[in-house]
Amino acid sequence: MTQAQLEARRLERFEARVARGEKVEPGDWMPEEYRFELARLIHNHANSEIMGALPEGSWIPYAPTLKRKMALTAKVQDEVGHGHLLYRVAETLGKSREQMLEELFSGKAKFSNVFHYPAETWADVGIIGWLIDGAAIVNQTMMAQGSYGPYSRALKRICAEESFHIKHGYDIVVSLATGTPEQRAMLQDALNRWWEPIMMFFGPSDKRSVHTEKLVRWRVKLKTNDEQRQEFLRKFVPKIWELGLSIPDPNLYIDEQGTVHYTEPDWDQFLTVVRGGGPMSQARLATRRLAWEENAWVREALALAEKRYADFPIA
Amino acid sequence: MARAGWKFNPYHHRIPEALERARHPVPPADTEWPVWEVFRQPERGEPHVHVGSVHAPDAQMALVLAKEQFSRREPCVQLWVVRAEAIFATPYEDADIFEPALDRTYRLAAGYKVRPRINQAASSSEEPSS
Ligand SMILES: [Fe+2]
Ligand SMILES: [Fe+2]
């Protein structure tokens, strides 16, 4: 058999496996394009987890009660944990963790558009937890059905934790929505500022995004950006209205079929933001790098630590 | 409305410094530590189940990191960590070795049906002898 025939047969077997709904595991043969696209996607996802910890983490010292402080700390810890899990998954596709972090710091690798914006008030913490984690769970529950075994295993666990994040965010939002006029105003202000970034969260409209037929067939992507956005809106728009909040989009309405119609976000603006031109892009990256550099001594100390009690053999 | 709250965060105080320092990045230390596979036992008597992996310089740190990562909410009475390279696996391409070569019901409890035979024997012995 020639090399080309061998490749063709491998591809055929790979596609048949995916079509049967079987997972692909790290040792398996996979098309280079599959490896590349997945690695990029998971790397960006991992970056978003640890970058998302920054806007929320900055509110931990100012949480209004001890319980909120503990819950927010737990949430931020979860997000960093998600980053750990996902960098491990991405590593199975070829790149080292150190390389991936370097690509993040240098701006070569991207992270979610929503974390390029400031978290200005306590209400932002509620909106982020409720709506951004709410959007993330739409994406992640879908991706958990994807074809790559390690990613789908990690996402199942991540989604379980996300449901706490969303509920906690909702709890903050409801507290403010049912609170004083100042609290309601603060909440509405946060929603006004976050609405557009949230509408952009799932990425460019299907009309603009590159056709991904192959990625759908390989179960790297299971729904289009617009399908995910629609799913998110159907779920959350009625809940936002229920709290008496208004959505800052004059064209937004729900038709008889339940479809949410909206103003198309400015996708050029989206691209500027994710390429590092958002209001907080450079500050966040610099902060992330500063934390990485200043905590280098911890990693060095760990590597040198006296090996003491790892002496509990099981057999 | 006051929205300046976030500016008091220690890191936000240091954004100008962070931006300045980012122009002269320090090369990262070598932290490409080995990978440890993690197994969690939810309660005594239950099996240890593989839950994921961590990077760590040694077993002790691997246990500390595994505790943070894999038992934040889940019940746990014991964690195991094993160097990933200490695990040997059969190749997926050879998964057909696990397929039964022939009828293997003789190995299974379900392969033995005794009740119908007992019932049959009982009913035939009840018949009046001629
Ligand atoms: Fe997360
Ligand atoms: Fe989350």
Return the structural class of chain A. mainly alpha
Domains counted in the coordinates of chain A: how many?
1
Our estimate of the beta-strand percent of chain A is under 5%
Tell me which oligomeric state these chains represent. Answer: heterodimer
CATH fold-level assignment of chain A: Ferritin
Within the CATH hierarchy, at the fold level, what is the topology of chain B?
A: Ubiquitin-like (UB roll)
User: For the report, how would you describe the main beta sheet of chain A?
Assistant: 2 strands, antiparallel
First and last CA, distance of chain B: 106 Å
User: Within the largest sheet of chain A, what's the order of strands?
Assistant: 1-2
Radius of gyration of chain A: 21 Å
CATH architecture of chain A: Up-down Bundle
Q: Give the CA-based shape of chain B.
A: elongated
- Calculate the mean pLDDT score of chain B and round it: 84
Mean pLDDT of chain A, nearest integer?
92
Percent in helix of chain A: 55-70%
Q: What is the count of structural domains of chain B? A: 1
Q: What class do helices, strands and sheet pairing of chain B give?
A: alpha+beta
Task: Tell me the span between the first and last alpha carbons of chain A.
Answer: 48 Å
